[in-house]
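Recall from the previous lesson that a structure prediction takes nothing but the amino acid sequence as input. Here we apply that procedure to Protein kinase domain-containing protein from Rotaria magnacalcarata. The sequence below is the only information supplied.
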Amino acid sequence: MIGSGAYGQVISAYDSLLQRKVAIKKIKLPSINAVEAKLFYSRSLREICILTPLKHDNIVQVLDCYTPAATVEHMREIYIVTNLMRLDLHQLIKMNNQRPIDKRIITSSHVPHFLYQILRALKFIHSAKVLHRDLKPSNIFVDLDGHVRIGDFGLARVPEEEANTPMTGYVCTRWYRAPELMLCDGTYNSAIDMWSVGCILSELIFGQPLFPGRHYFDQLRLIVERRCGSLGFLPHEHRIAYPTITDKSLNALHRILGQCTNYHPKPFLPSDSIVPNIDAAAFDLLEGLLLMDPHKRLTADDALHSSLFNNYRKDAGGEPSSEEAFQLDLSPYQLPDIRAMLFQKVQLVHQQLHEKALILNEQATMAASTYAEKMDCY
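The prediction returns the following tokens.
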């Protein structure tokens, strides 16, 4: 078993048809009478619907999905097959911190290498009008060659859903949660993902979470102490930055601001980095990603133009965007409908991907046969 969480277990396996190693995520579905049933089924359906069409080198790919159930009434679990990624950034950072300084595995070249791939994926995701909403080191997967893929889209959303139901602020793990998620009434956009990327970049550079809040108020206090007074946000400008701030959040913010005697932000210093010889552009990028005002925060496309990535850009014309916006709205549906939709989607995707795998297998077999025939001629 590779890992486990609230929504399932993940094991490694071998795909004998296409001769490749894969990861299989088992999602055990709750009883339809369970309190969290609709949320659980919706999350599973959303993840499959969003991940399947998002074809990008730096996004985890759905290679297959299936259920052993013959009918929706008998569906108790589903399985999602994806690329096998041996590590995530959380594990890598932890391993790095445990090593002696002269033997640490994250170098100054790894930071832009990892971040560039994360930003490539996010530009593609955001261009498809999808918000990930749960970016953190443990959802950024890395293989042994340093190839990065973003995964876990269970909390991802698209605008159509949010137009009909208020967006919740209870997304993103607390330490990576943007201030507008904590302060506003459910109005936010892709800037929340960019804040999370800033937190991830900081963790890569400094080896520890930047805002490890113990609870809501403590989290907000850490953000205010570290970032208030930074470019684009001063204490009296919160109404401009957050026009939909709630009264409760406004009171909490005023309370915290009243306790702070110095609004000048603590700068990000190269001397504090656990990774030697970090490019100064990384610290400029960090400032731009962690602006308090979401309207001034860097977008994925903005960040990709940083000089930090001069040696990594693959295409002078810019990184690819999605050709069309993704659409999904589950808000009109009740649990029985969502459950049936999940069963139908799993069946459909399994059929489509299995047929594709058979074609690829046939092509590989023919190529191998042709090669063998040519070799026999010598």
